[in-house]
Amino acid sequence: MTQIKLKRIYEDPESSDGYRVFVDRLWPRGMKKEAVHYDLWAKDVTPSPEIREWFHQAPDERWNEFAALYQKELSGSDAVKQFVEEIKKYPVVTLLYATKSPDHNHALILKEYLEHVI
To answer: Would the pTM count as exceeding 0.90?
Structure first.
């Protein structure tokens, strides 16, 4: 079974990270792609621009509804099904995200979803 971890993209890579997947749609400002160690940039498994933008207007108030909307997107996505098949090959997968909030970010929702389907 694949172990799923979370880490901010700004943190240094470690050998225990395993297969590193950046799971944001937009590249973080100020970071050069060549300077970041990642194995895959999985833009297609991120929240749609519509719900991402809506959520960012009031993240604390909209967290629960955002989580439900994003989970619905995940469960109906062919890209997510392909992503699951890809990451099942690795014993450890670290989902990299850029947001500052460790408590209100889509990577938490994605991790929970993946742990249920892998």
So the answer is: yes
